[in-house]
Every structure is written in structure tokens, then in C-alpha cells.
């Protein structure tokens, strides 16, 4: 969990400023979750490598889609942390951070992030090892290919 909080703090520190109350919540959560943790520095970041790559390799619409997915991933992580926490103050801080993430995510796709998430989840749930799915995919391929070009 600490890596996620550290990454969120670093991402937020980047180009735009972080609202003071959000920064305070993040710092307090880092104090609560991150002790002397050697795993934070193991050269395997959770989001930072993807964040760097999307800025360099993708156009703005693709960057926005992936940033929306990153924000959603953070939200799922913090929901889990909130469920696992026994401390009410920590739960409140996690909920506060989630509110800011939700607003930020809505900025990437105003009014469409829920719809995009539904489409993405539907596609990710496709069972590629199912022979029926494989046959249907092959049957649909020419149409999908034409739509993609």
C-alpha cells in the first residue's frame, strides 16, 4: 500500500499543484502506512513507469484514457485500504483522497468515465481461452478490422 501512496504523492507533486487539504491527507496517510519499507525502493514502481511512458509515447486522448484507468485503480486500492483499516481517522482520510481522485478522473472524461469503465471492464472480462469466444472473435474479425481502419 505504501508504494501506491508514495506514487500518488509523487504524481501529485509533478506539474500541477495539490490542494493543501489533499496534500495534508496524503502526508498523514504516508505516515500511517509507510514505515521503513525497503520494498518502496526496489526499482519496480506501481504507476510511475507507465506514467512516464504514456507522456512520451501516446497522444493526449490515449493519455487521458490511461490516466482515467490509473485514477480508477487508485480508487480501488484506497477502497480496499479503507475496508481493511480499523482506524476511523485513517478511513476518513482515505475517503477524502478518493473524493479528490474521483473529481480528477471526471476531468479526464467529463461525464463519460463510468461509461468508459464499463466498456473496459466488459472487454477485460472476455475469456480468451473459451473456444466459443475464440470462434465468435474470428467470425467478427473482418468487421472489427474495417472499423479500426
From TrEMBL:
Subcellular location: Secreted
Alphabetically ordered keywords of this record: Cytokine, Glycoprotein, Secreted, Signal
Record InterPro entries: 4_helix_cytokine-like_core (IPR009079), Interferon_gamma (IPR002069)
Keyword Cytoplasm: no
Signal peptide: 1-16
Main location group: secreted
Transmembrane residue ranges: none
Domain of life: Eukaryota
GO cellular component: extracellular space
Cited Pfam families: IFN-gamma (PF00714)
GO BP annotations, alphabetical order: immune response
GO molecular function: cytokine activity; type II interferon receptor binding
Family (UniProt): Belongs to the type II (or gamma) interferon family.
Record protein name field: IFN-gamma
Amino acid at each position: 500500500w505504501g508504494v501506491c501512496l508514495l506514487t500518488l504523492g509523487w504524481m501529485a507533486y509533478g506539474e500541477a499543484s495539490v490542494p493543501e487539504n489533499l496534500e495534508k491527507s496524503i502526508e498523514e496517510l504516508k505516515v500511517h502506512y509507510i514505515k521503513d519499507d525497503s520494498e518502496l525502493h526496489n526499482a519496480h514502481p506501481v504507476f510511475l513507469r507507465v506514467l512516464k511512458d504514456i507522456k512520451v509515447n501516446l497522444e493526449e486522448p490515449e493519455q487521458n484514457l490511461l490516466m482515467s484507468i490509473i485514477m480508477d485503480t487508485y480508487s480501488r486500492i484506497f477502497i480496499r485500504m479503507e475496508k481493511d483499516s480499523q482506524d476511523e481517522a485513517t478511513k476518513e482520510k482515505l475517503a477524502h483522497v478518493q473524493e479528490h481522485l474521483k473529481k480528477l478522473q471526471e476531468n479526464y472524461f467529463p461525464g463519460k468515465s463510468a461509461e468508459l469503465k464499463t466498456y473496459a471492464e466488459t472487454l477485460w472480462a472476455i475469456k480468451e481461452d473459451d473456444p466459443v469466444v475464440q470462434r465468435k472473435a474470428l467470425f467478427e474479425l473482418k468487421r472489427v478490422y474495417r472499423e479500426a481502419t
